[in-house]
Amino acid sequence: MTGPGALLVVGDVVTDVVAIYPEPLAPATDTAARIRTLPGGAGANAACWAARTGTAEVRLLARVGAESARWHERALVDAGVRPRLVIDSREPTGTVVALVGKDAERTFLTDSGASLRLCPADWTPSLLDGAAHLHLSGYLFFADSSRELAMVALRAARTRGVSVSVDPASAGFLAGLGPQRFLDAVAGVDVLLPNEDEARLLAGLPEPTGVDRAAAELSRRVPLVVVTRGAAGALIAERGRVTAEVEAEPVEAVDSTGAGDAFTGGFLAARLEGADPVEAARAGCRAAALAVTRHGGRP
Question: Does the model's pTM come out above 0.90?
Fold first, then answer.
């Protein structure tokens, strides 16, 4: 995936409602919190971080509701992304409520809305004109119509010789879909970017199992597997073995929302500029470190 050319991201645009609460939640009464409404979505976040950290043109295909289409389009353009937003006539833009505790970890309440209503009719082959790499948000694979669209895009990229990456996106949704079904759907991708929980789940290994074993197993199916590990950094696996570990940048985290998306964007931007997997993982860790020092999932 190295060399000149654009990055095309196909994924989700959502509205994030981020609630940061310094004290434990108090059931059946009030808990003081800081609440912000921000543009988000795993695909959109990754595209914005790629545009911030790299020099390649970044494009995004996503579906939104009419009520916030202009706001989301402006936010993406301001971030340096070229958006193609399909306006859904039936559903509003997806919404995610991110609950962020004192430890900076987040829990999501997700209403996918229009984002998973992407369908093959939204695809046009010209999206790949001049593209060097296609990145698919894993959220696309959790609904029938968007999964079909993702597979159309994947086949089109393979036909053109364009490399493809996938971020599995959500261990909870992966469990609901079924790991084998997901792996079958993404067969033929070049890069898989799971976090630790997603890697173990996809490899069919129990939670106490070392993530290095999970990464190695997955790299027998996908040429390059890069597992994000939060404060522990990332590890890289190829051809059935772990080939490198990359340390995280030391920072004081305030909100982990979008850290994985930032890693993805930084990693892909670096790869498009010619970085090897280790250099690209370091770039991803730098982007993720910056992401956790601010609220929300965008640069």
Answer: yes
Q: Which two tokens stand for residue 52?
A: 């911030």
- Report pLDDT digits (tens) over 136-187: 999 999 999 999 999 999 999 999 999 999 999 888 889 999 999 999 999 9
On the 0-12 / 13-18 / 19+ scale of CB atoms within 10 A, 184 is exposed
Residue 261 falls in the annotated catalytic set = yes
Residue 14, C-beta contacts closer than 8 angstroms, at least 6 positions apart: 40, 41, 44, 93, 94, 95, 96, 112, 113, 115
Query: 106: part of which helix (H) or strand (E)?
Result: strand 106-111
Contact at 8 Å (CB) between 71 and 40?
Answer: no
Cα end-to-end span (Å), the chain: 24
Catalytic residue among 122, 167, 255, 261: 261
Q: What does the alpha-carbon distance between residue 64 and residue 115 come to, in Å, rounded to a whole number?
A: 6
Strand partners, 238: 224, 241
119 band by pLDDT with thresholds 50, 70 and 90: very high
